[in-house]
């Protein structure tokens, strides 16, 4: 039986009896545990929210700390809000990080927008006056990495260390339908299932297969197609009810859409159904448990259920 691989998508949400610094320390410990349990990735989100308990808005300064205290797990952002950042600065930071920790640095791009107040401070201009140039800015980062000789010659621009390692690039969205853009920029793709209620309605098996084929023809290797899930694996029904109630508290009284909060057998059944439906074998989990011990228990149950500590690498499923 082929295996699935799992990563963590860390939002920094913790119970309200903790301070923001407690949250950061918990997340650092959580990254180490995720590696010990056989998880493949640990991604931190960029979110600019009005909440004094959140440990970070931009996680970039945390990445080298997590990379330094782990050995194998891939670490990165999911994702950088590129409408609000300089492509040149992003390329500088992640090129350096990718060379300090070669083969372990991921750079994801997201087209989210903070409040107008924060957006104006990030770009030092009137929020309403600038266009959505997300795609242009992502294209620029991809060019700085992928066309380095041309950029050096034509623009006298260097992203040091010159001609060194580059991070793996990931395009984040609610579908795989921007696959042509991802192929052209040599980006892996991540589909979030918890941002919109209808994100699970798209029939994208053929889209993903075509994306893989076109990417492989152009770049010579098969890209990652990843599903981002929200949920928690719980030991019993009592804990499931507790996690469901906690989840509503962080989501304005409503459950996070399409979330999977279930005991191991049901959790495994529902995840495998998604894997077969889309033809994917990679997932990243937004853990919705609000206590550190709940989150730790959840990833332990997932690790055991899916055999994440098995020595052989994960393979794509056959459908």
Automatic annotation (TrEMBL):
Q: Could you give a GO molecular-function term held by this entry?
A: oxidoreductase activity, acting on paired donors, with incorporation or reduction of molecular oxygen
Any one annotated GO CC term: cytosol
Boundaries of each Luciferase-like domain copy?
6-118
Q: Which domain of life is it from?
A: Bacteria
Task: Supply the name of the protein.
Answer: Luciferase family oxidoreductase, group 1
């Amino acid at each position: 039986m082929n295996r699935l691989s799992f990563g963590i998508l860390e939002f920094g949400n913790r119970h309200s009896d903790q301070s923001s610094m407690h949250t950061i320390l918990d997340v650092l410990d959580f990254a180490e545990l995720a590696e010990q349990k056989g998880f493949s990735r640990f991604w931190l989100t960029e979110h600019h929210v009005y909440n004094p308990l959140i440990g970070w808005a931009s996680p970039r300064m945390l990445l080298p700390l997590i990379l330094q205290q782990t050995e194998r797990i891939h670490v990165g952002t999911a994702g950088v809000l590129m409408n609000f950042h300089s492509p040149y600065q992003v390329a500088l930071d992640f090129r350096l990080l990718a060379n300090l920790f070669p083969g372990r640095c991921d750079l994801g791009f997201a087209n989210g927008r903070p409040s107008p107040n924060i957006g104006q401070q990030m770009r030092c201009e009137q929020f309403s006056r600038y266009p959505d140039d997300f795609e242009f800015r992502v294209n620029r980062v991809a060019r700085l990495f992928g066309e380095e000789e041309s950029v050096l010659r034509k623009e006298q621009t260097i992203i040091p260390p010159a001609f060194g390692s580059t991070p793996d690039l990931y395009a984040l969205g609610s579908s795989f339908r921007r696959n042509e853009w991802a192929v052209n920029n040599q980006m892996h793709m991540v589909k979030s299932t918890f941002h919109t209620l209808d994100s699970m309605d798209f029939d994208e098996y053929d889209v993903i297969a075509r994306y893989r084929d076109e990417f492989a023809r152009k770049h010579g290797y098969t890209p990652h197609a990843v599903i981002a899930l929200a949920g928690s694996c719980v030991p019993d029904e009592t804990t499931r009810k507790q996690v469901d109630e906690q989840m509503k508290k962080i989501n304005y009284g409503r459950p996070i859409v399409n979330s999977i909060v279930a005991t191991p057998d049901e959790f495994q059944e529902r995840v495998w159904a998604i894997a077969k439906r889309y033809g994917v074998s990679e997932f990243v989990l937004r853990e919705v448990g609000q206590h550190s011990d709940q989150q730790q228990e959840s990833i332990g149950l997932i690790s055991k259920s899916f055999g994440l500590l098995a020595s052989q690498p994960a393979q794509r499923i056959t459908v």
